[in-house]
Amino acid sequence: MKSRFTISIFILLILFIVGCTAPETGEELEEEKDNPIDTSVDTEGNTDSSSPSKSTAIISSLEQIQGDIRHVHYAGKGKVLVSAERLYLYDLDTENILTEVSQESKENERVWIIDDGYVVIQEMEDDSVSMTEWEPDYQGVFYNEDLKQVSDFDLNQLLEEDDFLMSLKQISFNHDGTNMAYATDSGLYLYDFELEKKTKILDLESENFDNHSNIAALEQIGFINDGTQIAFKAQTLPSQLDQPSYDTCGIVNIDGSNLSNQTFDNYTCKELIAYNDWMLFAEDVTNATGRLMVMEQKTEKITIHTLTDKDESGIIAGSDEGAYFATFRSSNQDFIIRIYDTKTGELIEELQNSVDEEALLNQQPILKVVDDTRTIILLLGSKQEDIETKIMVNRF
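That's the Transcriptional regulator sequence above. Prediction below.
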């Protein structure tokens, strides 16, 4: 198992590396997709006259939280889950902790809002395992709305002996938490918690490449359309074997039908942010062009927003309900956050500040935008163990 496991990691890493450097490749798109709507904003200055730039202090209204904050997750209805020494449910409007539960924060964790609560999955750490023998261990917990544990599960038990799941971005839950989709190196699966049944939606090991549209790896997934479809970001193999894999994105029904795997003229999708009715596809942070693609679920209509600065389109954060998206760019010790309207691409707010330690900006920040309270939360340094997290909480 170890040898095949190591080969699987090697193949996925090669696909990822060459995919990042692959040239634009194209499938023919419908006429509407050949001519996407371009909603440009004024790029002559930092902002327009209706949205003046604002300097904001790096302060926190989260003083009640114990320990260094490592993650903030959307919790719906103007609330967030804050992961520190414990897991806190925090109301942004009243600035109060509603409830808390014992849970150690992990470097890699994700939260999904479901009808009656939340699902939390963490990647557990094993210091006894070397990098060459590393096997991820994913553990999940279902909580109700008051953070009372309902049940837990070991995601590794669902994987085949030689199967491998690279990232938490390869997992998604439907709105009621009954179904979980997950993508491994062998395919895309659906697991029904009520029936305790696993179904393979796409078989990436099939020798009939047409059955999976030459997809080699599904890197990111998300439920859309009331849980009946799954949006994805993928690496796809070219028809000529001597060519590198390339970035694609698309949609598939949860029964595996109506697979749509696409590329786009002059736009490379690198990061998926999926909502029920639309998807955001952000650019590569190392090759940003200052744009953001929005795709409607029903029509697959494409809109491309042109942002204020070229460099900001590589770090995109969608708001919890999708009404807004925020961008982040930094230079030396200065940073700028811009908030845009997702539908129109209009610049809503710009926030500027600087930090005392440049190391705080060495890694990608955690950026959250909450629709109900029009609140933006920024965590700097939360992914670095030797640095105390700096927090900014601001209204817009």
